[in-house]
Amino acid sequence: MADVILVADDDPDILRFVELNLRLEGYEVLTAVDGEEALAVAHHRVPSLVILDVMMPKLDGYQVCQRLRTDGRTSGVCIIMLTAKSMSADKVLGLTAGADDYISKPFDPMELVARVKTTLRRTREMRSVSPLTGLPGNVQIEAEMQRRVADGETFAVLWLDLDNFKAFNDRYGFIRGDSAINYLATVLREATTDDQFIGHIGGDDFVVLTSAEDCETLSQAIVARFDKDVKDLYDPEDATRGTVVVTDRLGRELEYPLLSVSIGAATNEHHPVKDYRELVEVATEMKSFSKKRPGSVYAIDRRGSAEDGA
Q: Fewer CB near the terminus (10 Å): N or C of the chain?
């Protein structure tokens, strides 16, 4: 099956040029002419790689890149930024926003195709194990879920991420942001047993596979362990106040709560599935419910069980 590549650029000539060259290499190509359309297309059909022009209407390339990285559905996609040749600052900002690579305009089509192939290959190699946490990556996560479904196992999927993580990164920088991600990884290791599976999807997104009967107990343990020492990640004044203050692009000071963890869980106990992605979809939906409530929260899909509600 061909890799799907999304190309977002408001210049119709460049859009057609890139699309043609990628199609000639056997890729399936989706297109968008502005940032909002790029996000909509990526959410409708998650691509393997996204090529983003820096300057686009509605949302610029940096904003699209950041939103793709902070959305569990698209956090693992490869991203290449198109930048003006003379604007080295564009390259720095793009990489800081989460881009995997960049290419300067005007560009040679052979260079573009080579960078696409290299980025996809490098990402596939890295996904087998997370270099940050040492946990299994997307390849192993998918294989484990497929195995459990194929073997007819009854199990639960816990989908997790951090709340207020962008504010933490803005306040303390990406190195301490990585420390926060590793903190959550440590919490998961301490809360789980050997027969439970932990995976690092990417960014601050994680997955845990466990038995249906252990789903709620494990969710409670993760929340309790996370909240116990999360303040240690902060400077004393922020930890005491219970918030961080971040200055936005307009110079406004905005206050955000401390980090918390949101968990969404789903099981195939009452709803047998043929495709693990059905469970992932429900778990993601449950996580969205969790994120609407303050603090560390878990929500479990109970539809079809004796209990009602999440």
A: N
Q: Which two tokens stand for residue 109?
A: 């089509």
Residue 31 near residue 15 (C-beta atoms within 8 A)? yes
Sign of torsion over alpha carbons 60, 61, 62, 68: positive
Q: pLDDT by residue (tens digit) across 11-26? A: 999 999 999 999 999 9
pTM over 0.85: no
Encoded tokens for 137: 């990556």
Mean pLDDT computed over every residue of the chain: 90
- 283 located within any domain: yes
Predicted local confidence at residue 289, as pLDDT = 95
Task: Tell whether 108 and 211 lie within a shared domain.
Answer: no
User: Which one of 63, 97, 127 terminates a domain?
Assistant: 127
306 within domain boundaries: no
In a domain, 133, yes or no: no
Q: Which residues contact 40 (CB under 8 A, 6 or more apart)?
A: 32
- Side-chain-side CA neighbours of residue 151 (13 Å): 9
CA-CA distance, 287 to 220, in Å (whole number)? 14
Q: Which tokens is 157 given?
A: 């999927």
In terms of DSSP H, where are the helices of 151-252? 165-172, 174-191, 215-229, 236-241
Residue 31 tokens read as 């297109």
Whole-number Å distance between alpha carbons of 298 and 301: 10
Q: Which domain holds residue 265?
A: 138-300
Domain count, the chain: 2
Q: Please tell me whether residues 238 and 284 are part of one structural domain.
A: yes
Question: What mean pLDDT do residues 131-154 have?
Answer: 90
Would strands 243-247 and 101-105 be described as parallel, antiparallel, or unpaired? unpaired
